[in-house]
Amino acid sequence: MSLGIGERLIQAREERGLSLEDAERDTRISRRYLQALEDETFDIIPAPVYARGFLRSYTQYLGLDTARILARFPEQAPAGGAPAPRSPGGEQPPARGRSSLFGSSLPDEPMIGVDIGVAVPSRRLGSGSLSFARTGLVASVAIGVVAVVLIIAILIANLGGDGETPAVEGGATPTATPSGEGETPATSGLDVRRGVVPDLIGQPEDIARRAVEEAGFEVTVVRGRNEQYPRGTVFEQAPTAGVEQEPGRGVFIAVSDGP
Question: What range does the domain containing 232 cover?
Fold first, then answer.
């Protein structure tokens, strides 16, 4: 008899000597949601699109046949979570209506790591020493990069002439004038209020991300096919525009991959 989704995940994780804490650190998916996948309690995850995204990332991480396991994922998996936040007055803020993708619910904690395509781990022999070695390697690489940047900067300065700064009328020191080419605008350009979810539908992904950050929230992105909106454009969001919530909470956007 073939194993269920959860049993297969547990078996693969234990065969590799991994704990849920290891998987949470490596995939950046909350342990709560990894546990929900293994228990097949998919209603804990706010929407099926997130459950499928997490399942895809987790199976890739464990080296399983992602397509085969996703084929066993229930098409009508229930969406869980708490009701969407209300405004301080107690009334539901005006919005576009219930989200067809996310529903009206939000998780109690930020979700990250949707479909991140993490590398398959090797069997762990000693997580403590391995973590220490990894930290030392990262620190060494960082120091090396900084040193190279400093050397390049010194060489450029020495090749730039006699090192004197040309005089400018009025005694001002000249500064480089931005060309505007390939630069990212400092702000989203949208009407954003801190603590209020901005209207992101139809916006390019980079603009939407910036607007969410300007409003003080954490952004989580999923991607999906959509015939109405061009590739790279937001076609769903949760909560809907105008909802007030505490800064630091999550805002979820679905970005079109095209038709």
Answer: 205-256
